[in-house]
Amino acid sequence: MSTIVDFIIFPFTSLFSLGKGSKTFERFIEASYEIGVNSLPIIIVISFFLGLVTTVQSFYQISNMLPKYFLGLTVGRMIMIELGPVLAAMTVTARCVSAMAAEIGTMKITEQIDALKVMKINPQNYLAKPRILAMLVTLPCLNAVTIVVSMLSGAIFSQIFFSINVNTFFYGLTHPFHPIDFWSSFIKSIFFAFWISSAGIYYGFQTTGGAKEVGQSATKSVVLSIALILVFDFIAAIILF
Amino acid sequence: MIKIINITKKFNDRLILDNINFEVTNNLLAILGPTGSGKTVLLKIIVGLIKPDAGQILIDKNESIGFVFQHSALFDSLTVRQNISLPLEEKTNLSKREINEQVLKIADLLNINQAFLNKNCQELSGGERKIVAIARAIINNPTYLFYDEPTTGLDPITHDRVCSIIKNLAKPGIIVTHSEPTIKMVEAQPIFHLKSAKLLSTKEYYEQS
């Protein structure tokens, strides 16, 4: 029970930890580059195929039953509301959250975190705060990239293989348009970002032992992050829709 | 002055430190003991990294402690210069120029050249890492310096170099080691022995042996 409470409190104590603002900002930029820019190639590849798969499956379900513009509507809603934020968060979990747990876990077992404490540098301010802030900024951006790339790949695929005009596809995408569909995607992304970054960093800080335990911390952080993504996705669905 | 009063520590019912009392004043004090005797635990208790089961540590408000870790605890993704300047970068409002001047002063004191300052810490040997760790520990001029096994695993030449650095720095503090030659070279006084969780003076130690 105390572990759960510790985990819930951890990101808040990190965000409110005190340190030199200019240095925190420097580390925030570094972390944003690592999470945001370096994740772009894999996000683009995954999003491209996400758009294709969603289009093929949706066309299979609605062809001969509904007007063609419904393909854009179905693909658009599925990607914007559900698949975009969830898959972007899961990709970042696999690429960055596990790396955070492993990096901070290694620092813990090699006494680097103790060294920070002895130098009176708050480890949460030095290691956790910039990473959580970077995730809060970059994951919604990666979510936007996921949505745009998936919809473009879906639209182009449906034009080439199903002879559904791109304009018809995009008409379905925007008719009817409910702003909540758009905003819910980003609200979810921010929630996911907050908790998955916290999971990676928290397990890093909890690491004791050696190389085996660092690996276990990375695994635990990924498992917890994926579970949290799905739990929050469900809670958001109930609250927002 | 640092006062260590009645410090006791157990790990899983194994008594590591039993009612330890001593003071650190203006000397470099040595604690000798075999591996696993609790030397590092004692140092970590004094700097606040480990909580004791009983006892207290009293340190004057305006006094500070530098710590040289057994495995150096350098940040491998940073250069030597960045590692040394870290405490100043994070805890002071000095300009980049002032920090660089301070780093060069310390580098000069420890015979570190410019090329070495720009090396990545991953490229350093064990002895070089110890020297960088000492440089980082003294950059903000702490009142006391604690060394945790500063010469373990070093070749004889590097051992002598590290010892002469510690001796020439002449900082009060604590050096813990299992090596008697190291204690002799750094001219630490007084010398205590950690045996069966008790801290003994040299006289008491030889009386019991």
Describe the structure concisely for a colleague:
The complex is a heterodimer of chains A (241) and B (209). Chain A has helices at 2-15, 21-37, 40-62, 70-109, 112-118, 123-161, 166-174, 179-206, 211-240. In chain A, 86% of the residues lie in helices and 0% in strands.
Protein described:
The complex is a heterodimer of chains A (241) and B (209). Chain A is mainly alpha-helical and 241 residues long. Helices cover 86% and strands 0% of the residues of chain A. Chain A contains nine helices and no strands. The longest helix of chain A is centred in the middle third of the chain and has 40 residues, at 70-109. By secondary structure, chain B is of the alpha/beta class. Chain B is built from eight helices and nine strands. Chain B has helices spanning 39-47, 80-91, 96-109, 114-117, 126-138, 156-169, 180-186, 202-208; strands spanning 2-11, 14-24, 28-32, 54-59, 65-68, 144-148, 173-177, 191-195, 198-201. In chain B, the strands form two sheets. Chain B has a six-stranded mixed β-sheet with strand order 5-6-7-3-8-9, with helices on both faces. In chain B, a hairpin with a 2-residue loop joins strand 1 (2-11) and strand 2. Chain B is globular. The model of chain B has no long low-confidence stretch (mean pLDDT 93). The A-B interface holds A 19-20, 23, 107, 110-112, 114-115, 117-121, 126 and B 44, 47-49, 65-67, 69-71, 73-75, 86-87, 89-91, 136.
Major protein interface: A-B, 15 and 19 residues
Major sheet characteristics of chain A: none
Give average pLDDT of chain A, whole number: 93
- The helix count of chain A comes to 9
The number of helical segments of chain B is 8
Helix and strand sequence of chain A: HHHHHHHHH
How does the helix and strand content of chain A classify structurally? mainly alpha
**Morphology of chain B:** globular
Class computed from helices, strands and strand pairing of chain B: alpha/beta
Mean pLDDT of chain B: 93
**Total number of strands of chain A:** 0
**Helical content band of chain A:** over 70%
Computed over alpha carbons, the radius of gyration of chain B is 17 Å
Shape, principal axes of CA atoms of chain A? elongated
Rg over C-alpha atoms of chain A, rounded to the nearest angstrom: 20 Å
Distance between the ends of chain B:
31 Å
